């Protein structure tokens, strides 16, 4: 008997249009904004982008754009694309990716030119924009990688903020005592692991709600570091605080690569933490999608029972992943006190741990996606601080809000649906 | 490979799920475990597969005692299991699912999926499985997913294969194919433990049958034993397997569904242009394999679906676009398919569950405060009327057995004067004794002149209750046939053949082989 013809039809079910008008409406409003602001309120004169700096391997001339003309071009492009998006939604029920992408890029560049054209100096240094952005991006990447490790295995990590903060505090303390920044870096990883241990123990072993444990841990770490900051770090010996004077991690420029315009100073003139970041992004991506380790982690995060029935220890896998996530976030925290700023201050992470979660979702639980999202948030955040100094046509506080508004749009699914691991946040109880 | 269970006992707290079970599976035989839902079959197999540790007793393989601390040990000992709910990661490919847990790897743990793909292709061609190693599991039909599960076990060199209720999700045709596969595996020397509560299948395929009731082995039977004999062993008393039902006397067509289309958020048509009507005093049974639009149909009537087009008329009133409350008030009684999630509030008492839809109305509440005495009296009446086996009507609903929970749901829904009664999977997971009772109540509602719609994936139930039978496939209506139609006809329709084509195929002299029918699929 071999009558096993597959009669189960694998024919795809017909798709019909369930029209979602969110995007066409959004595009329409933005196009209107472009017409009014870029054209009618457009600044005269030029917006200049400085690309090269001294010491680069070769010099790229500054890019000067006539703001008004550029604004008109962008506005027309935006209107055309919005109309195209409307037409596509009407006919097919979906908008081509290129339309959305081109619209976004055109609008963002248009906005940038308009803002810079409107500043007093009418120029911006790209190197400054990106290197400054790294101050925000680096801890965000570490935070979101911690989230990737935890959530891919099925544990929601709201405690990233606490892990960053614990890392920042410990790095500063240990580096101050030992006068060795690398000892501080190591201690920060340990501190992150300790916070993670609490998260893992309560949420995996004792099946307490993961969100609640995470929130409590954030408050706990904030209180604890704040208390120790007052009691230890403010101790003065000979008129100087000795426990909050961490030795800093030196920049380690890579020869040749560091001299490429813009990219060099941004990526190849960093401390060890910066390089570690690049290695981790690539390494975790490869590990998750190309190795046995990653296959098992993803299985545990998607369908823990299936993993259990093929002999994978679900809760041990999750425990180890949460600990690894803690180490990664702890290192990210060390960046605050060993690279970015020269001492610890109370609650200095300022909510970046939560933005890291947003980057994680924006990046669709993918290490590379999360890193790019972190870069976007970093650039947006830094642009705001640069522009508020340069004197912009819009209020600085308003610009400061933009990255977060962007986050909400991203998280609420405007930029495509992102799908969390199916068992994310679900405790696994055997049997 | 010979497998023996000796005195296996498994208790969860006070509940004894398995009580000194002895079982011998000889090499190369198909051994059926027959028992009702909740008899302890699955628990026993989970013990055997290392998912539960037995409270007492031992497992012997080839007469040597073994101890499993987890599924990995069981697999290493040559035991493979196809679970009732598939243990497949939906977003993984077939190869990734098969590899999981026993991956071939190269340097530094880098996956070598090519080795797994080769093994899948080899097994697939040996048994004629037609499984593509690179297909995403969530995009495969359930029948193929089940084959992936079997491949998973075979790749791990399983010598004993446990199949836990494997036919529950299959069309009659796919069931036949599974039986063929089981025969091939047996010929190759694999022992099979086949768990089922479907008497016909058990009789057709088994070498030996062991019957389990309330956690105990009540005896073994020969496959040639009479169906009624097996049924009474399984239930513990004589059961009347056929329902005494008078012919329907249909009245006016008061429930009309016209061009009903339901879509999900992604725009897939889950229900596609379905038109039918039901008369007063008539039962329309909707058959089909799970996931072919039945859920959407019942939920669309109740107002639980988002993207609904077309018209649903009850007694001259349009139901599409109304709120659930309005639909209920229009006289619709609804038994949802998942009673534990949608039919009851488990922590609430039986009495409270009996007024879930009435608590806002007099006399159950006045001026926004509930009248406990009336609710309690109502509960006692209903418990007596529907023979709900419970200590007290104030006990939590989730302390009841499945059959008694379903009686509570039915008692609540039938309490109001109805213009339409819809029941989805009214007897899923319900013991045979309760099935009889529930069926009688449904027929009684019909005889009272209410149009009734029953959705069921069990062909037996459909044939028993339906005055007419509608078959859904991939969201489309394959046709409506009389209640006394043949299983073969319904089977073909459930596999996607419209009624007239299915009839033509059955009438054609050379028809009946799978090869021919494949070309005629829509």
From TrEMBL, chain A:
- Transmembrane stretches in the record are 21-43, 63-86, 98-117, 123-142, 154-175, 181-204, 211-229, 272-289, 319-342, 372-392, 398-416
- The answer to whether keyword Magnesium applies is no
Entries under CDD domains matching the protein: TM_PBP1_transp_TpRbsC_like
Q: Does the keyword Membrane apply?
A: yes
**A cellular-component GO term for this protein:** plasma membrane
**Where in the cell?**
Cell membrane
As for membrane topology, the entry says: Multi-pass membrane protein
Under the GO molecular function aspect, what terms does this record hold?
A: transmembrane transporter activity
Q: Pfam families of this UniProt entry?
A: BPD_transp_2 (PF02653)
Keywords of the record, alphabetical order, are: Cell membrane, Membrane, Transmembrane, Transmembrane helix
Descriptive protein name: ABC transporter permease
Report the source organism: Arthrobacter wenxiniae
TrEMBL record, chain B:
Please name the GO terms that the record assigns under molecular function.
ATP binding; ATP hydrolysis activity
> Which Pfam family, an example, fits this chain?
ABC_tran
Is the keyword Repeat in the record? Answer: yes
Q: Where in the cell is it found?
A: Cell membrane
Q: Name one GO cellular component term.
A: plasma membrane
Q: Which organism is it from?
A: Arthrobacter wenxiniae
The family database entries (Gene3D superfamilies) matched by this protein are listed as: P-loop containing nucleotide triphosphate hydrolases
The membrane topology term of the UniProt record is: Peripheral membrane protein
Arranged from A to Z, the UniProt key words for this protein are: ATP-binding, Cell membrane, Membrane, Nucleotide-binding, Repeat, Translocase, Transport
Keyword RNA-binding in the entry? The reply is no
Recorded protein name is ABC transporter ATP-binding protein
Which residue ranges does the record assign to the ABC transporter domain?
3-239, 255-499
Q: Which PANTHER family match?
A: CARBOHYDRATE TRANSPORT ATP-BINDING PROTEIN MG119-RELATED, GUANOSINE IMPORT ATP-BINDING PROTEIN NUPO
């Amino acid at each position: 008997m071999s009558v096993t013809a597959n009669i189960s039809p694998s024919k795809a079910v017909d798709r019909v249009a369930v029209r979602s008008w969110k995007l066409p409406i959004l595009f329409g409003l933005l196009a209107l904004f472009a017409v009014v602001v870029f054209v009618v309120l457009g600044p005269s004169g030029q917006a200049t982008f400085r690309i090269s700096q001294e010491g680069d391997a070769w010099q790229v001339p500054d890019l000067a754009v006539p703001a008004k003309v550029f604004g008109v071009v962008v506005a027309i492009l935006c209107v055309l694309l919005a109309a195209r998006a409307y037409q596509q939604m009407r006919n097919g029920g979906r908008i081509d990716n290129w339309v959305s992408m081109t619209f976004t890029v055109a609008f963002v560049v248009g906005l940038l030119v308009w803002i810079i054209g409107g500043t007093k100096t009418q120029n911006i240094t790209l190197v400054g924009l990106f290197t400054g952005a790294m101050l925000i991006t680096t801890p965000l990447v570490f935070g979101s990688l911690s989230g990737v490790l935890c959530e891919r295995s099925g544990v929601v990590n709201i405690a990233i903020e606490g892990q960053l903060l614990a890392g920042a505090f410990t790095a500063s303390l240990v580096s101050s005592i030992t006068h060795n920044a690398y000892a501080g870096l190591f201690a920060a990883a340990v501190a992150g692991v300790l916070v993670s241990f609490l998260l893992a123990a309560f949420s995996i072993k004792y099946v307490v709600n993961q969100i609640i444990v995470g929130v409590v841990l954030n408050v706990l770490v904030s209180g604890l570091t704040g208390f120790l900051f007052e009691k230890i770090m403010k101790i003065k010996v000979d008129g100087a605080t000795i426990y909050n004077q961490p030795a800093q991690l030196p920049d380690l420029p890579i020869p040749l690569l560091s001299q490429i315009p813009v990219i060099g100073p941004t990526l190849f003139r960093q401390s060890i933490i910066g390089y570690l970041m690049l290695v981790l992004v690539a390494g975790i991506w490869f590990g998750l999608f190309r190795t046995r380790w990653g296959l098992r982690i993803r299985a545990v995060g998607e369908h823990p029972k299936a993993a259990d029935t093929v002999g994978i220890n679900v809760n041990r896998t999750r425990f180890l992943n949460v600990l690894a996530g803690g180490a990664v976030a702890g290192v990210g925290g060390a960046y605050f006190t060993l690279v970015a700023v020269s001492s610890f201050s109370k609650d200095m992470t300022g909510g970046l741990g939560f933005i890291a979660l947003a980057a994680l979702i924006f990046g669709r639980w993918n290490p590379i996606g999360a890193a790019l999202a972190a870069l976007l948030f970093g650039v947006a955040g830094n642009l705001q601080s640069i522009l508020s100094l340069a004197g912009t046509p819009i209020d600085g506080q308003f610009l400061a809000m933009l990255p977060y508004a962007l986050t909400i749009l991203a998280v609420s699914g405007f930029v495509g649906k992102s799908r969390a691991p199916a068992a994310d946040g679900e405790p696994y109880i055997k049997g | 490979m010979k497998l023996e269970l000796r005195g296996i006992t498994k208790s969860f707290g006070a509940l004894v799920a398995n009580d000194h079970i002895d079982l011998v599976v000889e090499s190369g035989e198909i051994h059926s475990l027959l028992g009702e839902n909740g008899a302890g079959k699955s628990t026993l197999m989970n013990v055997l597969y290392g998912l539960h540790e037995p409270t007492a007793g031992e497992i012997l393989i080839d007469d040597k005692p073994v101890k499993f601390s987890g599924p990995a040990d069981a697999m290493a000992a040559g035991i493979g299991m196809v679970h009732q709910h598939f243990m497949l990661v939906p977003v993984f490919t077939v190869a990734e699912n098969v590899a999981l847990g026993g991956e071939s790897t190269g340097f530094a743990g880098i996956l070598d999926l090519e080795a797994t793909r080769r093994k899948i292709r080899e097994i697939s061609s040996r048994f004629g499985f037609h499984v593509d190693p690179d297909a995403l599991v969530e995009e495969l039909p359930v029948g193929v997913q089940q084959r992936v599960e079997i491949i998973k076990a075979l790749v791990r060199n399983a010598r004993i294969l446990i199949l836990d209720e494997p036919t529950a999700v299959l069309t009659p045709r796919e069931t036949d194919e599974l039986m063929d596969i089981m025969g091939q595996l047996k010929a190759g020397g694999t022992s099979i433990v086949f768990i089922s509560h479907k008497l016909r299948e058990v009789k057709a395929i088994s070498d030996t049958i062991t019957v389990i009731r309330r956690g105990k082995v009540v005896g073994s039977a020969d496959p040639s034993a009479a169906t009624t004999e097996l049924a009474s062993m399984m239930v513990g008393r004589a059961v009347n397997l056929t329902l005494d039902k008078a012919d329907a006397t249909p009245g006016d067509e008061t429930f009309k569904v016209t061009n009903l289309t339901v879509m999900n958020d992604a725009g897939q048509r889950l229900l596609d242009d379905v038109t039918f009507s039901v008369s007063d005093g008539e039962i329309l049974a909707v058959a089909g394999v799970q996931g072919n639009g039945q859920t959407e149909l019942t939920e669309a009537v109740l107002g639980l679906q988002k993207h609904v087009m077309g018209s649903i008329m009850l007694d001259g009133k349009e139901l599409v676009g109304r709120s659930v409350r309005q639909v209920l008030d229009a006289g619709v009684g609804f038994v949802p398919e998942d009673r534990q999630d949608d039919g009851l509030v488990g922590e609430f008492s039986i009495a409270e569950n009996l007024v879930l839809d009435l608590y806002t109305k007099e006399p159950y509440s006045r001026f926004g405060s509930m009248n406990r005495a009336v609710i309690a009296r109502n509960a006692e009446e209903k418990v007596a009327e529907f023979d709900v086996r419970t200590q007290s009507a104030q006990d939590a609903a989730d302390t009841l057995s499945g059959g008694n929970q379903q009686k509570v749901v039915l008692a609540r829904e039938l309490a109001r004067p109805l213009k339409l009664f819809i029941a989805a999977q009214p007897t899923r997971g319900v013991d045979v004794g309760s099935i009889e009772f529930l069926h009688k109540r449904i027929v009684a509602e019909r005889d009272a002149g209410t149009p009734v719609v029953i959705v069921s994936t069990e062909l037996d139930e459909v044939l028993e209750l339906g005055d007419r039978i509608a078959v859904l496939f991939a969201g489309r209506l394959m046709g409506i046939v009389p209640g006394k139609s043949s299983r073969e006809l319904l089977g073909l329709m459930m596999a996607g053949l419209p009624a007239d084509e299915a009839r033509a195929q059955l009438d054609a002299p050379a028809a009946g082989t799978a090869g021919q029918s494949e070309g005629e699929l829509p």
